[in-house]
Amino acid sequence: MSKTNGLIAGGVVLLLGGCAGGAAVRDVPVRIGPPYQVRGVTYVPAADPSFDMLGYASWYGSESGDRTANGERFRTRWITAAHPTLPLPTYAEVTSLDSGRRIVVRINDRGPFAGGARIIDRSRGAAEALGFRERGSAAVRVRRIEPLEADRQRLRKGKAARPLPPASARVLQNLRSQLSAGRMP
User: What are the residue boundaries of the structural domains of the chain, listed by start?
Assistant: First the structure.
């Protein structure tokens, strides 16, 4: 079976078997899901191993106790995020273009759906780790990664992944220039 067919089959298994609201925090099966519409906009989930995008991030936190799109309980203090099209779950490195702080998040929900340049919503825990919970939103780079299993385990238990060194001033300047010019990294 090809990798793509395996991912699709895993998504179907989750769709058929995971609707009971299981609260287990697991990395399998990976769910891609069919295209869907929110507020008249169609989103097409897809596997994108090279995902690397600049834009803006916000945070959400009042949904604590609700279920995420992959059936897990949403926990505001955990280092999680929502993305409209990446498979669930996916791991991503998020870099604040203001401070250079970098963290690994576990994407387990769908969103943001506010339109504009927002490319990811983060939990309150992730917003605090990046240092911009008070501002509500900030410029970021979101890059899909495959973290070490130890980091995956920590994130699945609500703990932060190992600390990453901040992005260098040169890298930040380059990313800020690309964002202002509307280019991708």
Answer: 3-181
Residue 181 CA neighbour count, 13 Å, CB half: 9
* Domain 3-181, CATH number (from 3.40.50.10890, 2.40.370.10, 3.30.70.260, 2.40.40.10): 2.40.40.10
Q: Give the whole-angstrom CA distance, residue 16 versus residue 24.
A: 16
Q: What pLDDT does 182 receive? A: 81
* 21-30, 103-112, 128-137: least confident range: 21-30
Rounded to 5°, the CA angle 38-42-44 comes to: 115
Q: What is the mean pLDDT of residues 133-151?
A: 91
Q: Which helix (H) or strand (E) holds 170?
A: helix 169-181
